Amino acid sequence: MSKGAILLRSGTLYDPASGRYGERADVVLLDGRVADPKEAPSVDREIDARGFLVTAAAMDPCAHMAVPGAWTLCAAGMIPDAFSLAERYAQRGYGHVHEPWAMPVSFRTVRGDWERIPALDRSIGLALPVYDLAIWVQQKDPDGARQALACLTNRLQGRGFFLPEPGIRYRLEVYKLKEKSPAEALRFFQEVLEGMPGPLVIPAAQMEKDHMPGLFPGVHLQRLASSSDLSPFDDVAHGHQGPLPFTFDLGLPWPDPGLAFTWTTPEGPLGPWCWDVGAPLLLQAVVTEPKDFRNEARILSWVTDRTIHQASLSCQHANLALIANWRGLVEAVVETWGVEGWFRLTRLNPARALGFQDRGHLKPGARANIALHPEPCDDTPADWADALSRCHRLFIGGRTVYRDDRGLDPSRPGRFWPQPAESAHHADLAFLEDGMSLRARTIERFAGPWKGDVLC
Q1: Which of 35, 36, 203, 370 has the smallest number of CB atoms closer than 10 Å to its CB?
Q2: Per DSSP, which regions of 18-169 are E strands?
Q3: How many CA within 13 A on the CB side of residue 211?
Q4: Is 261:317 a contact under the CB 8 Å cutoff?
Q5: Which residues contact 405 (CB under 8 A, 6 or more apart)?
Q6: Contacts of 226 (CB under 8 A, 6+ apart)
Q7: How close are the terminal C-alpha atoms of the chain, in Å?
Q8: Which domains does the chain have, with CATH numbers?
Q9: Which branch of life, at top level (predicted)?
């Protein structure tokens, strides 16, 4: 084994990707990756992992911390600072956080906020309302749309796209696309996004029955538990054989008070802070009452043994680090969906949903984002909750960034995940600056100072 290799000796593996649950084995970390121990004749450093669970680090696929509106809440002390946020995640065994959306005009600022979070890996999705792409939809030109998106993602280092209005709410009024059904519009995006990393994120609450035929692998439905009507999803689940044609995160209410984020008009209680999204809106934080998701029969019945393979764990109240009663959450999830369900919901499934093939698992070649937890005293939900609420050691890229006896190491940088470089021309971004739509005119007001820096 080459210099710098680390051997985690005799830990207890929990890895849903390989079906290894409770197996005692060695794990080798080499050059920031998981390596095959059989191909390692020597080690540079050995860590005794006996008595500890060895798992891939968990991932939060739907964290909202660095978006317009949330900044006011940070200033008001309702959201912790970047170091405290990262330390909370690390204490719970989380190594990667994903902000599902940021506008092109605010992307640099959002990225700057995420860069202040030490140690953890981070990624950001690009918010792209349909009417930014209406010209290509009308011309039936998926190649043109793909080139523009490739340019944006390469320049902004975004991963995936958040589509707040997938040809649904304003399809007739704004897009003037009467000839296209919502399902047809989604199929257009399937062709546009083919081969691009990251998901097409759509708010689950906006999905209706006639949208379902357009769903395809690569669509990720955000915060399914917030949907008031699950019947459209029932129809898909009951009539589909094999894996569902989409992934989703739950956005469950947790068994403790939390922050619920809602959009409101400028007359709301936060006063003058506005974010221009075509109309002035404010992000309002409301403290919620304790509510145990185990009383939500509609969600428990929907997330069956088959759909648990599609689901990721996310918080309805901004992000998982804000949950006060973390132990209660872990116990509730393990009691409801089992230990395997916990590791799927927090590791493998969010990695797959975000298009990361090299994380969420411990197979050779995976990025060495690894969490060590103490083994539970007994095989009960309460004992598992004790174990999974305390991360003993967290590795990011094979380097220790957190230890329970030392805390988080702020000198260890995390990593963003840029897209492969592709040739791009300024013309690819013309749709952001030519006044084609309300959104384009909004972007045009902010894009000027960034010419030659971010957008072109």
Answers
A1: 36
A2: 20-30, 33-35, 45-48, 52-56, 58-60, 94-99, 121-124, 126-127, 161-162
A3: 21
A4: yes
A5: none
A6: 204, 205, 251, 316
A7: 44
A8: 58-358+430-441 (3.20.20)
A9: Bacteria
Q: Tokens standing for 174?
A: 């704004």
Report pLDDT digits (tens) over 288-321.
788 888 888 888 888 877 788 899 999 887 789 9
- pTM recorded for the entire structure: 0.86
Dihedrals φ, ψ of 331, to 5°? -60, -40
Assess contact for 149 and 419: CB atoms under 8 A: no
Name residue 399's amino acid.
R
Q: What percent of the chain has pLDDT over 90?
A: 36
User: Facing residues of 276 across strands?
Assistant: 280
H or E segment at 159? none
Angstrom distance (rounded) from CA 11 to CA 208: 46
| Distance of alpha carbon 363 from alpha carbon 16, whole angstroms | 10
Residue 403 and residue 393 in contact, taking contact as beta carbons nearer than 8 Å: yes
**What is the pLDDT, as a whole number, of residue 148?**
76
Residues 6+ apart with CB under 8 A from 429: 148, 151, 152, 455, 456
Give me the numbers of helices (H) and strands (E) for the chain, helices first please.
12, 21
Report which of 209, 204, 201 is spatially closest to residue 238, judged by C-alpha positions: 209
Rounded CA-CA distance 270/263 in Å is 11
Residue with tokens 């199929």: 187
What are phi and psi for residue 103, nearest 5 degrees?
-70, 150
